[in-house]
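Sample entry (325 residues):
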Amino acid sequence: MAPGPGALESLSVGGGRHKMTWSRSAMGTLVTVTAIHRSRELAEDAAGRAFGEMDRLVALLSRYEPASALSVLNGEGVLPSPPPELRAVVSGALRFHAISKGAFDPTVRPLVDLFRGSTATPPSQELSQALDLVGARKVKLRRRTIGFDRAGMGMTLDGIAKGYVVDRMADVLAGRGLRDFLIDAGGDIRSAGRREDGRPWQVAVQDPAKEGAFPDLIGLTEGAVATSGSYETYFHRDRTRHHIVNGGGGVSPNESLSVSVLAPTAMAADALATAVFVIGPRAGIALMDSLPGCACLVVDGRGRPLPSARWRSAKDLFTSKAGAP
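Predicted structure, serialized as tokens:
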């Protein structure tokens, strides 16, 4: 199965191996798969199947797809017999809500929609009404249904679903026999094996100021990294409201410019990056230091890089064998 349009390059890298890269637009970003293998045909087939899995999952999990399972849940307030993939992501979201003591909250959609639809600070009454609809404890994940306690609630899985999709793509590639690959979905990254020169995959941490310098460079073999930042999407001209929202107070955190998280899975890295951004540098780093197999680098509001205790040692030793939160 070929991945379709978007193949960028195929290079011979010695030892009978080929380095191949494919790229496609999806999930509001550019998704790139890079693989190294002796067989072009096998790698092409594996990449095609991985992109096919991506398309299938996006059709289930995206809140921007009117017919997706998530959109039906948001529209109806209850979803009987939810697909197992949606159950897995919602279950993961609720788990990270608990781990982060509420900082990661998938039910902030009413707040995000309110900020997105307003060019100024919303009236206090509208903000209060939106806040009444937020709270992961109001989500009921039962054996055969997913539902909300209150009419008007809604979930956005933007802070976790992309990581889940990247993990599933990695499962497809590994299942088809690829051992050396890297998936990059707009900063949600999952890797396996090594580059063509035998060194770890090199991942640069995005500069929030976009001035060309990188706060750090990660050597990644088996594991994932994800970055959350306020520098990509602002809703207001004064940049006080952006796409990351604290569900407890209805504000966009401003103590950090970006948070990069290393974790065994892209789903964990994705969710924890958002949680640490909401919590703030000091408490967020303390949270990461308490989680085995995880590390983070926070770029604070003054542009200073603040690493967690395991960040340095984790960069070159990171493996998916570590226990995921």
